[in-house]
Amino acid sequence: MADEPLRILGRANSFNVRKVLWLCDELGIPFTREDWGRGFRPTTTPDFLRLNPVAQVPVVLDGDLVLRESHAILRYLCLKHGAEALYPTPPSQRVQVERWMDWIAYDLTHAMRGAFLGGQLQEAPWNNPWFVAQGRQDFTHCMRLAEGELADGRAHACGDTFTLADIPLGLVVNRWFAVQGFDKPALPAVAAYFDRLSQRPAYLRHARNGLP
Asked: Disulfide: which of 1, 31, 44, 185 matches 6 by Cβ 3.0-4.6 Å?
């Protein structure tokens, strides 16, 4: 019997949920999605906390398996569905994908809290003026680093081929161009990368779709 569709718990406008939706679209993985999180069903209910004690989306249910943390979910889906091109097996290639994903999960996530959650959405506690200023500075620094790497002429994060690394990076780049409230330097290589990703229909549906 064919596997049942994945159940994706999380609002479609969530930064991290959109990573999972984009990958499912790229790989043709069937899924259903349920609205949870900001503006929808709260993630602090006992039922949701049994699935994810940290009360964050996305949560993905694959049969009886409960998955959380967006980058772990991306890796799992690539491994399950044999997406070798996106998540290559050779260690020398996989580590290039992993380094981008880990850097985004740590450095850029922290920077975007100040620049976006605090500076643009004015959400407490992220809207502390010092934290906003630091987030904008750190976000700009990280994007300059991405510019330096992409300026070598590569088409994608890890070279000429689209990989799993491009999914979190593509969401970050979309947010960089969408976020407002501070002066941003011109980053021509990042802009060209943004336009190349925009040739992918799944990117337009789940990333460059008018949401930051």
From this structure: 31
- C-alpha to C-alpha distance for 195 and 178, rounded to whole angstroms: 14
Q: Look-up: residue for tokens 């336009």?
A: 195
- Residue 6 has a pLDDT of 98
Alpha helices in 6-152 (DSSP H): 15-27, 46-51, 70-80, 91-103, 109-112, 129-150
Number of residues in the chain: 212
pTM of the entire predicted model = 0.96
Between the alpha carbon of residue 111 and those of residues 3, 18, 119, 172, the distances in Å are 39, 19, 11, 11
Task: Tell me how far CA of residue 74 lies from CA of 29, 101, 137, 151, in angstroms.
Answer: 12, 10, 29, 27
* Helices 15-27, 70-80: crossing angle, 10 deg rounding: 10
Which of 192, 106, 195, 116 lies closest to 142 in space, CA to CA? Answer: 106
Report how far residue 24's alpha carbon sits from residue 18's, in angstroms, rounded to the nearest whole number. Answer: 10
Type of residue at 197: L
| Residue 56 buriedness (CB in 10 A; 0-12 / 13-18 / 19+) | middle
Specify burial of residue 185 (Cβ count, 10 A radius: 0-12, 13-18, 19+). Answer: exposed
pLDDT digits (tens, 9 = 90+) for 40-83: 999 999 999 999 999 999 999 999 999 999 999 999 999 999 99
